[in-house]
């Protein structure tokens, strides 16, 4: 948890008035491992312009644990003089860090402590049942080579999308009587969690701490665990790249949202320019200013 405060760069000072909150899923949404550095530069330049003009804060809302997210952010910041740390992070879909006055990401103590107590209680009461379920899944789906995550005992990795659908069906049938237990799914990962702590409830806490109404929030995501954020903040703007899960696309299409025809990071850039900016009535001269800073790079959007 404390790793977030030791990022090599810090968040920018808060704007005079923080008016908007943009939340980004990390993997296959904002960040693409090995993706062009120009895409990352475009993102940071645009976010600098939006911060200065409209008081936009930004953050990462991910299923990654803090260690894995720190590694990803190091890759994202690499060799980019425009980069700056997020104003908040949500890790494992539930643990919160918020930038302090010096731009350091500090644990959201009241939220994280309550979250830890809830999960300790949950796994204390139902740990034996979940352990038996995990062992059953490993036998029933031995051909899928299910793996448990090293630092998260109640989670699985299944590198087969259809296989994970089948595994999820068995899990849901087993835990259905236990209303407190839910699963978080993103790509090949599936995690057991407490129903009250997810990307949506965590983002609502972040918004309250910054004093930003949900109608001034934007949610960018591609995976099943992003549905909680979109459900819990129904007034927020929604956006997904073309590689998003079908369920996410359906959620985005259901109200004030934008489905980009482009994938991953380019889908986020397109969603910002052609989705979020017009939705919030932000002037396109911000975009032009960001493009002028880019020099010879490719334009932010066509």
Number of strands: 12
Distance between the termini: 40 Å
Q: In terms of per-residue confidence, which ranges show pLDDT below 50 for 5 or more consecutive residues?
A: none
**Class inferred from helices and paired strands:** alpha/beta
CATH topology of the largest domain: Rossmann fold
CATH architecture of the largest domain: 3-Layer(aba) Sandwich
The shape is globular
The helix/strand order is: EHEHEEEHEEHEEHEHEHEHH
Outline the biggest β-sheet.
8 strands, mixed
CATH H-level superfamily title of the largest domain = HAD superfamily/HAD-like
What is the CATH class designation of the largest domain?
A: Alpha Beta
Helical percentage: 40-55%
Number of helix segments? 9
Q: Overall mean pLDDT score?
A: 93
Kindly report the spatial arrangement of strands forming the biggest sheet. 5-4-3-2-1-10-11-12
Q: State which percent range the strand residues make up.
A: 15-25%
What's the gyration radius in Å? 19 Å
How many domains comprise the coordinates? 2
